[in-house]
């Protein structure tokens, strides 16, 4: 049953991406758009297979909305979701429908170079952290504890760093300079959530304060 739910979720996610990308474009013969949808589909499938092997309990946890989500995180999501979606809408309008700007195809490989390490870091973070749920909460019902292995030995919130690469790669993969505006806003939103989540964990999760002293940086080693 869980496998069926996961398959439905993955299919629905890819369909949503396709709609959000191609609706503003106004046409279906957008090669960069189809390439992006294909990359996203392969990424979602690879991530599901990886988690199924190394951290299957997280899949079930991420398929549901658990009680205890922080109110500030709900408010954050109401702002972040539309900004992230607007990145694809702007890309469709810019690169295809209205052609506000022109980006050389030479930037596409750069987008892939940014996307792959970002999504690999994001998946690795989920692979070693069974508490990597979609929302911020202290998961007392699941024995929430500090994770300090894998990428968490270097920065405290590697998942957000990985997803930042996802955001910044999209304008390059979809050939839209204007899409960088919502992409950068999305990254700023991730930085804000990092700070808020880190504060919550320091205050409410046993052992996190000591962990924060050992691993000094939240996102970028030597920077912040």
Q: Please provide the count of β strands.
A: 0
Give helix % range. Answer: 55-70%
CATH architecture descriptor text: Up-down Bundle
Share of β-strand residues: under 5%
Short précis:
By secondary structure, this protein is mainly alpha-helical.
Walk me through this protein's architecture.
The protein has one domain (2-214): Four Helix Bundle (Hemerythrin (Met), subunit A) (Up-down Bundle), CATH 1.20.120.1630. By secondary structure, it is mainly α. The chain is built from eight helices and no strands. Helix 1 packs across helix 4.
What topology emerges from the helices and strands here?
Elements: H1 2-25, H2 31-54, H3 56-62, H4 71-97, H5 107-128, H6 158-173, H7 180-204, H8 208-214
Helix pairs in contact: 1-2, 1-4, 2-3, 2-5, 4-7, 5-6, 6-7
List keywords for this structure.
single chain; 224 residues; mainly alpha; Four Helix Bundle (Hemerythrin (Met), subunit A); 8 helices; 68% helix
């Amino acid at each position: 049953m869980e496998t069926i739910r996961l398959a439905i979720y993955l299919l629905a996610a890819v369909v949503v991406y396709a709609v959000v990308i191609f609706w503003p474009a106004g046409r279906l013969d957008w090669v960069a758009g189809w390439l992006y949808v294909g990359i996203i589909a392969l990424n979602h499938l690879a991530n599901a297979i990886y988690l199924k092997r190394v951290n299957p309990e997280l899949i079930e946890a991420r398929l549901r909305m658990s009680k205890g989500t922080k109110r500030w995180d709900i408010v954050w999501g109401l702002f972040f979701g539309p900004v992230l979606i607007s990145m694809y809408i702007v890309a469709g309008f810019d690169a295809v429908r209205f052609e506000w700007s022109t980006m050389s195809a030479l930037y596409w490989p750069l987008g892939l170079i940014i996307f792959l390490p970002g999504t690999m870091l994001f998946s690795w973070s989920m692979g070693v952290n069974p508490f990597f749920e979609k929302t911020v909460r202290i998961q007392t019902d699941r024995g929430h504890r500090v994770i300090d292995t894998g990428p968490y030995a270097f920065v405290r919130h590697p998942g957000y760093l990985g997803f930042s690469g996802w955001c910044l790669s999209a304008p390059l993969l979809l050939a839209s300079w204007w899409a960088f505006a919502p992409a950068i806003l999305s990254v700023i939103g991730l930085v804000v959530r990092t700070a808020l989540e880190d504060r919550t964990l320091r205050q409410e999760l046993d052992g996190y304060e000591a962990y924060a002293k050992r691993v000094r940086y939240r996102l970028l080693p030597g920077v912040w």
